[in-house]
Amino acid sequence: MSTSTTSTTPPQAVLTPYITTSQINARLDTLADELNADYAGQSVVLVSVLKGSFMFLADLIRRLTFDCTVEFVRLASYEGTSSTGSVKPVDLSLPVLKDKHVLIIEDIVDTGLTLNMFLEYLKSVHQPASIKIAVFLDKKAARQHAITPHFVGFDIQDQFVVGYGLDADGRYRNLPEVCILEQPSGS
Q1: Which of 32, 56, 125, 132 is such that its CA lies 20 to 30 A from the CA of 21?
Q2: pLDDT digit string (tens) for 26-45?
Q3: For 115-119, which contacts have Cβ atoms below 8 Å and span 24 or more sequence positions?
Q4: What is the pLDDT of residues 95-146, one digit of tens each?
């Protein structure tokens, strides 16, 4: 892999390509086939965890053939490149989900803190018929909570990545591929 910088890169930060756009598209096709087989004939509520999952959701939903609706929640657990150790529910506005099939759409699961909190919330408050998780990236090496996604785009190493919706302090979401963000010490 080559190292590159873009015009959206702050001084001294380096973006190293990690997952290409063509790899993403190929995996989305396969992932959609898995979801379409699993949910054939069912009506499903896709609950997208903002902001990071918006690109994953947008590209994935166009490939889905089962009946679905989309809802959004906003949760925050990161500052910069580090987990804060707690989840801040920014917006949990959802319709009644009791007895409905729910598919959580998430950008990345690393420590599992965000999904652990959100799963407990859904189970206790909404009591859906089923809950499954589709994540774009699964970083098992960082896991602190017993979260196992049902559908995974890519398993990744313990690197801080940006692009394709993932950010560092709000930046880099617009990159069409996933890159490892490397910043010099002290940044």
Answers
A1: 132
A2: 999 999 999 999 999 999 99
A3: 115/145, 115/147, 116/145, 116/146, 116/147, 117/75, 117/87, 117/89, 118/49, 118/73, 118/75, 118/87, 119/147
A4: 999 999 999 999 999 989 889 999 999 999 999 999 999 999 999 998 999 9
- Listed in order, strand segments (DSSP E) in 10-66 are 14-19, 43-50
Name the active-site residue from 38, 59, 99, 110: 110
- Cα(116)–Cα(102) distance, integer angstroms: 15
Residues near 58 by Cβ (< 8 Å), separated by ≥ 6? none
CA 93, 97, 100, 104 dihedral sign is positive
CA–CA dist 76, 83 (Å, integer): 9
> Domains in the chain and their CATH numbers?
22-156 (3.40.50.2020)
The question of whether 158 is a catalytic residue gets the answer no
